[in-house]
Structure formats: C-alpha cells, structure tokens
Amino acid sequence: MRLVSVLLGFAMLAGTAPLTLAQGAQPTPAEKKAATTVMLPPAPKKLLPEALDGWLQTAPEKIITDAAEADGANAAALKEYGFVSQESASYAREGQTLTIRALSFGDLTGAYGAYSFYRQNGWPKESIGTGAASFHNRVLFWKGSTVVDATFSHIAPESGGELREIAAKLPMPTGSKAELPPVISFLPKASIDPQTTHYALGQASYSGGGGVLPASIVGFESDAETATANYTLSSGPATLTIIEYPTPQIATAKLAEIDAYIKAGSAAKPAWPKPLMDSDIASLEVRKSGVLVILVSGDAIPDESHRLLESVHYEADLMSVTQESDSEIKKTGQLLMSIASFVIIGSLAAVLLGIFLGGGRALYRMARGKPISSVYDEEFIHLDLAEKWEDPEAGSSEAIDRRK
C-alpha cells in the first residue's frame, strides 16, 4: 500500500508539473514588445439633461466626434471652427417633441464663429446664453465653447426659460480659450445690425457665411480672419468686411490684389459674387489700416460708405519684451569692477580690523599703567647654557661654563 501511494504521488506531480511551468512562464521579449498601453481620451462631459421641465428623453443621447456625421453639408466649416464633438437628444412631453443638438468647439472663438455661421441674417434676437436667435420653431444660441440648436414641434411661452436652464449649466472655458476673435472688435458699433455679424477663418466658413468677396481672393492660406456685418445708413444699407492678416506686409499685398479685383468689374476673374453684383459700384471702396484690409459694399451713397470705411482704425497692442543687450565688453568691465570692489572692501576691512585690535591692545596696556607702545619695554629672554668637557692636555675633567 505504501508503494502504491508513493507511485500515485509521483503521477500527480508529473501531471501538474507542465501546468505549473506554463503558469509561471515569463513572456518573451517579442511578446513584451508587442504589448502596448492604449490611453483612451476622457469621455466628453454630458451637456444635455435627461429630463427638463417635463421633457423626457425618448432615447439615450448620442455623442459623435466626426464633423461629417454631425453636419455633412458643412463639415469643412465646422473643422475650420475647431469642432470637437456633438451631443444630440430627442425629448417628448404631452404629445410635443423637442430635438436638441449641442456642438462643442475647442474655444469660445470657434463657438462664436459657428453660431454666426448657422444664424441667418434677419433672425429675431433672443435672450438666451451669450447670444441667441430664433426662426419659427428653431432656436439657436451659444455660450462658452458650445452652440445649441433646438427645434420644437411647437414653440410655447416657456420654451425660452427651458433653454436658459440648459445654458446656465454649460461649461465656460478659461484663459486664452475664453477670448473672442480680435477682428470682431474693429467693427464700428454705430448703425450696426448685431444680428448680421459673421466671423470666418477659412474658405468654407467664409463662403457659407455669405462672404462678399470670393474666398480665393481673401487669402485664408495666409492665416486671414474676417468679420462681416450689415449697417443701416440713412441713404441705404451697407456691408462692411474686415480682413485681418498676420503682418502689415501681407495686408499691403492683399490690398493691391483686392483693389485690382474690384476695379476689374465685369472682367474680374473669378466673376463677382452676388453681394458685389448687387452693390452700387460708386460705393465700392477698399483701404488698409495696419494689418487690416477693409471693404465697404452695398447701396449707400459714396459719402456715407466712405465715412463708414474710415471709421475703422487699427491700433496695435504692443507688449514690451526684455531683450539681452549686454555685450562681451560690457560683461568683462562688470567683472573687473566687481573684482576691484572686492579688493577695496577687503582692504578697508583689514584696516578696520587692525585699528580695532591695535586700539584694544593699547587700551589694555594703559589700564595696566604701561606705555601704549611696547618698544621701550626691557624684557629680554636669557638663555643660560652650560657645557662640560675634558681638556686632553690637562688630563683631568673640568667643568667649564660657557654662557651664550
């Protein structure tokens, strides 16, 4: 029996040994190299509520990050504005429906640009978020880096308040991401229709936003940005287009190109867009101010158009930057001056230390009734040295003292 137990034990060890080795086997270098760690980006924060004043979601919200899926017809414009994601949801309440989509952008500039792109001229202004407009059952507003587009099956008096609840909870960017595009600030405030301002930073957003010039003439390849707005002048409507370029040199070159295009008239290539065709040729004028190229078009008389054109002024916001201006000669002189200062300070310190120690010793001697100086002291050290030696001629020992 004991022999049988021993044999069974060996059999069990033999059966489990391969499994133990397999479990404890270390991965090969190739396996280690093949294993990679994938860091997934954080999930976007939800912008739309599941329930809102009786409105309940009929299906889970949908989040997409592809601009083509969000708006296939205007995907290029969304990309120019820095599109990040879109969250959409459908709601129902007492037989009514509500569809909302919230578009997120990289900064406040992109959100404002997208809002101005989707909002059409003539839409009534609403008091929701930072800016809002409506058209029949559709309400469009923006706040921070988000644009919200809501479509009701039926607009009710409380619809605005419901959307304000959503706007109040939208995130706000900080720092440089919370700044409006500077080119917007150059639009004159007098006689402007604020519901007609448009901001573009690419060909797709400029053309889709009703740009006056052909997008190929503007020069977006040179990092141009545009601001467009309509003005109600006493003699007729006018449109002001401001194009901001990175440098005055680029602005000068583009001014000549745009001026030549305007003067070419019907022979211009490409052909004039409809906004130019509908303008009074006598009122068309273009000028430059700093890095800005300004164009006025429309039906106002030339005097008023010119006055509107001249009301735009570019003032550079200069910032002082400290530059390294010390030469090698100046640095060497500073080093020598430092050494000389160190020597002078050290010498003065030595003199002061000598005066302090010498004066202290003099006071000490005066206190003991001795002269200040020790020159007159008769204090000598006497050495009494004796040497004993034998005189070989005398044949006897004799102690002889020698005093030194």
Task: Note the total helix count.
Answer: 12
Net shape: elongated
- Mean pLDDT, to the nearest integer, reads 84
Tell me the distance between the termini: 115 Å
- What class, by secondary structure content? alpha+beta
Number of domains: 3
The H/E string reads HHEEEHHEEHEEEEHEHHEEHHEEHHEE
Summed up:
The protein is an alpha+beta fold. The protein has 12 helices and 16 strands.
Structure description:
- The chain has helices at 2-23, 29-34, 67-70, 75-80, 108-118, 159-168, 203-208, 215-218, 248-264, 274-277, 302-310, 328-367, and strands at 51-52, 55-57, 62-64, 83-93, 96-105, 125-126, 131-135, 138-143, 146-152, 198-200, 225-233, 236-244, 285-289, 292-298, 387-391, 396-400.
- A hairpin with a 2-residue loop joins strand 13 (285-289) and strand 14 (292-298).
- The protein folds into 3 domains: 51-175, Protein Transport Mog1p, Chain A (3-Layer(aba) Sandwich), CATH 3.40.1000; 182-310, no CATH class; 344-404, no CATH class.
- With 404 residues, it is α+β, with helices and mostly antiparallel strands.
- Helix content is 34%, strand content 23%.
- Strands 1, 2, 3, 4, 5, 6, 7, 8 and 9 form a 9-stranded antiparallel sheet that branches. The protein has a 5-stranded antiparallel sheet with strand order 10-11-12-14-13.
- The chain is elongated, with a radius of gyration of 46 Å.
